[in-house]
Amino acid sequence: MFDRLAIAFATLAAASLPLTGAQAQSTEPVFYPGTNEGLFLIVTDFHFDPFSDPTLVPELDKSPVSGWTEIFKGAAESIKSYGNDATYSLMVSALDAAATQGMTYDYVLYTGDYLSHHFNDTYQKTAGDNPQGVTSFAIKTTQYVSQLLGDTFGDIPVYGVLGNEDSACGDYQLAPDSAFLEGVGEQWAKLSRQPGGFQAFKHDGFYKVTHPTVPDQDIIALSNVYWAKHYSDACNTNGGDPGKDVMTWLDEQLAETQQAGRKAQLLMHVPPGADARDTARHADKETCEASIHLFWQEHYLTDFLELMYKYAGTVDYTFSGHTHMDGFTVINDASGEPLIANQITASVSPVFGNNPAFAVFLYDKTSGAVKDSATFYLTNLEAAAAGAKPDWQLEYDYRSTYAVPDLSAASRASLAKTLQNDEPLRQRFSNLYAVQSATPEIDPVYWQAYGCALDATSPDAYKACLCSSN
């Protein structure tokens, strides 16, 4: 595979991923795809921390990516517990576990955040004498994670999007037409197996490819960090409005897809709708309306929803990450009927207290419909951080847990309504949301902040749901 993916500064050693994790042996598959069925994997939000052993950073900084694995293997680097991003050891353990579940994936999705939190500041503190520069190190780190994804799962496409941490400038500071975008674009194009779809990637970080197995379907990957409420264009020397540029490009791509009689799936990092965590944290505001926080700037959310209404029937599924939790949102049409299911996949990074996780999805190869999913998680993070063998296990499968026929927008909307009144199921959802964390993300006192976010994506709908219940 490396012959096909060779990049002078990004080629890895052939033995880059030794199967040393707990799941190095094959296990009984959760899914047995039938005729016209397939599987895809979402593993995401590593927030890979190359600084976990700061003594390695000067050597990593000066080494090509091809030498990084040997540097990590020769060190005493290990898994770290809650409150930390993914170390090399945790990243490899997660990839090993995903690769050895006895299932064959058709493709892999990575919905953003390759780089660790506080990446730039930590680099400046640990790079040592004569540093090569944070831009070079951010590019190499992103390339390293991307290449491990490509190497682990064999000859299948990998589709990624950039997260808010994925920038040589800083958190929420991705710059258009930057050296960072140019530095990862060529590699990502080759990992996608469709380099022709990446002509515009170096400008704003988006691309469009045909679905690898579903006829008449496209995958549109968005750099939607530009839409986020926290986005700062401090490093955008060209001026303009990159968020508007992405929205305009998306409109053009959806028009092209619709006119061709095709459908599209959207990949993004930051999910649409309300930021339930921030809303719950601000519940002490004087008014309910003042407590509401959105993930995106409101005008971008409004524009995006208008596009989804305009191209109703063209998009059935979107995939995102960012929250580090295991959740979903439903985009309803203008009349309030379920239109699009947005999958939010839990992170490998345990920095926010969740257990590391990844998910496998069963889908229909003729329509792209997502039929079921299974989430796997690291059951013994604290023990693994103390030196025990990592133990990855099946956490749950979606259909049997929630008694839904599939993962469509209609099924997700039905589940959202059931959760409002079924307290035992709501508790189960809350436990799974933070991947069995000992410190649950959802406080029952603030359930409505989370429950309303599931199927009230527009600002007005969320306000009506949350504030009428308070």
Automatic annotation (TrEMBL):
Keyword Signal attributed: yes
Residue runs in coiled coils: none
Signal peptide start and end residues: 1-24
Domain called Sphingomyelin phosphodiesterase C-terminal: residue spans: 348-423
Keyword hit for Signal: yes
UniProt cross-references to SUPFAM superfamilies, sorted A to Z: Metallo-dependent phosphatases (SSF56300)
Domain Calcineurin-like phosphoesterase: 40-325
Gene Ontology terms for molecular function: hydrolase activity
InterPro entries: ASM_C, Calcineurin-like_PHP, Metallo-depent_PP-like
Domain of life according to the entry: Bacteria
Localization: Secreted
Gene Ontology CC terms: extracellular region
Pfam families tied to this protein: ASMase_C, Metallophos
Keywords tagged on the record: Glycoprotein, Hydrolase, Secreted, Signal
Record-stated family: Belongs to the acid sphingomyelinase family.
Name of the protein in question: Uncharacterized protein
Annotated source species: Roseibium aggregatum
